[in-house]
Design goal:
The protein is α+β, with helices and mostly antiparallel strands. It has two domains: 16-99, Phosphorylase Kinase, domain 1 (2-Layer Sandwich), CATH 3.30.200; 116-285, Transferase(Phosphotransferase), domain 1, CATH 1.10.510.10. Helices cover 37% and strands 16% of the residues. The chain is built from ten helices and eight strands. The chain has helices spanning 61-75, 116-134, 163-166, 172-175, 178-181, 186-189, 196-212, 225-234, 245-254, 266-285; strands at residues 16-17, 20-29, 32-38, 49-55, 85-91, 94-99, 148-151, 154-157. It has a six-stranded antiparallel β-sheet, covered by helices on one side. Strands 7-8 form a two-stranded antiparallel sheet. Strand 2 (20-29) and strand 3 form a beta hairpin. The longest helix is centred in the C-terminal third of the chain and has 20 residues, at 266-285. Residues 1-10 and 166-171 have low confidence and may be disordered.
Length: 286
């Protein structure tokens, strides 16, 4: 497979990654850069372009083998609520992933206005995607509005968190940015392993953000990662005033400090969110 043209560190001016012709940079993902590339014929898919993520983590051959096994497991899941993965490759110590490109954006930056019911239905889809991962033993680790992608027929969960896979045992303080701390449950801040329950917490935090535009921790310090982590451990989430009663009940249950008090599965959370969406849609029609 061909290498990375111009700059093996995958920076400004890159025109090709392996056999993918780069069209443009799409932005920054968790732990790497995201590019739009033309689909090589070898993939034998109908998509003209794909989203390519280059991971910033310097990876060894052992890292790549572990990642490949993990992503093969991910790719085996048949779920309409997960972004499709087409390819993974390595050049030097750079790892890249090629997956489905969704031009409608995410709930963080949608390309069109979303009604409140639209947002609820999208979050029900995202929860179903998380449940599909959980059922084969994968915790997403990185659920937030920017990873709640908008497809043609519903929303899809994308950008699975790979930092813990590539750095087993690395702590939250070594892998997170202040901008994403608000989506971390207290038990992860304390060093526990990611789980169904931690993803349910992140789903609740994401639902709160996309409905209210406000974080669960409005006073979260931004000057220091350590200060932000300490704040999460010492403060309780604050529900936004814009929440409706049904939404508030769902989010409060999802972000319970005790993981055993949260919805037992992301599927249960999806059902609760979808039911609230149906209730609001029915009320709007009457």
């Amino acid at each position: 497979m061909e290498g990375l043209s111009k700059n093996e560190e995958v920076g400004v001016g890159v025109q090709q990654i392996a056999d993918y012709e780069i069209v443009q940079q799409l932005g920054e993902g968790s732990g790497g850069q995201v590019w739009l590339g033309r689909t090589p014929a070898r993939l034998e898919i109908s998509d003209d372009v794909v989203a390519i993520k280059t991971l910033s983590h310097a990876a060894s051959d052992a890292d790549f083998a572990r990642l490949t096994d993990y992503l093969q497991l991910y790719a085996s899941i048949s779920s309409p609520n997960l972004v499709r993965l087409f390819d993974v490759g390595q050049q030097g110590n750079i790892i890249y992933l090629a997956g489905e490109y969704l031009p409608a954006g995410s709930l963080a930056r949608p390309s069109r206005p979303f009604s409140r019911v639209d947002v609820l239905r999208a979050m029900a889809d995202i929860s179903r995607g998380a449940h599909a991962l959980h059922e084969i033993g994968i915790a997403h680790r990185s659920i937030r509005p920017g990873n709640a992608m908008i497809g043609d027929h519903g929303a899809k969960l994308g950008d699975i968190g790979l930092s813990q896979l590539l750095s087993p045992g690395q702590t939250v303080t070594g892998t997170s940015r202040v901008s994403v701390i608000e989506y971390l449950p207290p038990e992860l801040v304390q060093g526990q392993q990611a789980s169904r329950a931690s993803d349910v917490w992140a789903l609740g935090a994401t639902l709160h953000k996309v409905l209210t535009g406000q974080p669960l921790y409005p006073g979260l310090p931004t000057e220091s990662l350590v200060s932000a982590l300490r704040h999460i451990l010492n403060e309780r989430p604050t529900m936004g005033d814009a929440l409706r009663n049904g939404e508030r009940h769902i989010i409060e249950a999802s972000v319970a400090v005790d993981p055993s008090e949260r919805p037992s599965t992301a599927e249960a959370l999806a059902i609760a969110i979808a039911t609230e969406a149906d209730r609001q849609a029915e009320k709007a029609r009457t």
